[in-house]
Design goal:
4 helices, globular
Length: about 90
């Protein structure tokens, strides 16, 4: 396991446990696929993206996995990770 992969796995702690278990490998794999060769640390944009994604997932869990969301809260911002993972 590379230093970069280990650091991305650590960033996944931003996500709820069940979400990490279900999608962690996919998320880390996507970040690794998009990383420039030789990179040893996640970019600032990727750190912010991962933290925002984790917060977003925590909020979904709090609101009943998104099913109880109000019309106004259905709008969401997208991040580079959303685009890379096809979550637009």
């Amino acid at each position: 396991m590379s230093d970069l992969e280990r650091r991305y796995l650590r960033l996944l702690l931003c996500y709820p446990c069940e979400y990490r278990r279900a999608r962690g490998a996919e998320i880390v794999g996507t970040y690794l696929d998009l990383a420039e060769p030789g990179r040893r640390w996640p970019s600032v944009a990727n750190v912010v993206d991962c933290a925002a994604g984790g917060l977003r997932q925590h909020l979904w869990v709090v609101e009943g996995s998104g099913e109880a969301m109000t019309q106004g809260s259905k709008r969401r911002s997208t991040t580079p990770g959303d685009r890379a993972l096809g979550r637009l």
